[in-house]
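It would be a great kindness if you could assist me with a short task in structural biology. The matter concerns a single protein, recorded as an amino acid sequence and a row of C-alpha cells. Could you please explain, in whatever detail you think fit, how the C-alpha cells follow from the sequence? Thank you for your consideration; the sequence and its C-alpha cells are set out here:
___
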Amino acid sequence: MTQEKEIWTIEELVSLTENVQSKEVEYNGKVLPVQWCELSEAEEPKLDINPNDEDASDKYQELAKQRILGMIEKANEKNPDSVTLTSESWGALPMTLKYTIMNTVMGVDNPNLQPES
C-alpha cells in the first residue's frame, strides 16, 4: 500500500515567510523554546564572498549566523511575547547550543546521520 505524499501549495510556502514557527531545543537536560520566521529573498543577508579567498570559510559562517539571527529577530518582532533569544544574547551562548539552535531552525534533525542510500 502506497502512502500519498502531501504536496505544498505556493500559498502555503509563501505563508512561511509570515508565520512564526517554534520548537523546544533540548540542551544539557533542559529545553529552550526558540522561535523563528522564514526570510524572503529580499530579507536574506548578503555578503560579498569570493570562494577562493582564504577567509571565505569565515565569511560563510558569518553569513549563516546573520541568516539565523535574522530569522529569530523577524519572529521576535511578530511575536514579542515569546522572545527567548535576541541578537544581543546570541554572543553569550555556548557554541554547542548555538549549533543545536541553528540546526533546528534550518530543519536539520540530526547533522551527524548520513543519508540512507
The beta strands are 21-27, 30-36. The longest strand covers residues 21-27. The mean pLDDT is 89. Helices lie at 10-15, 56-78, 87-90, 95-106.
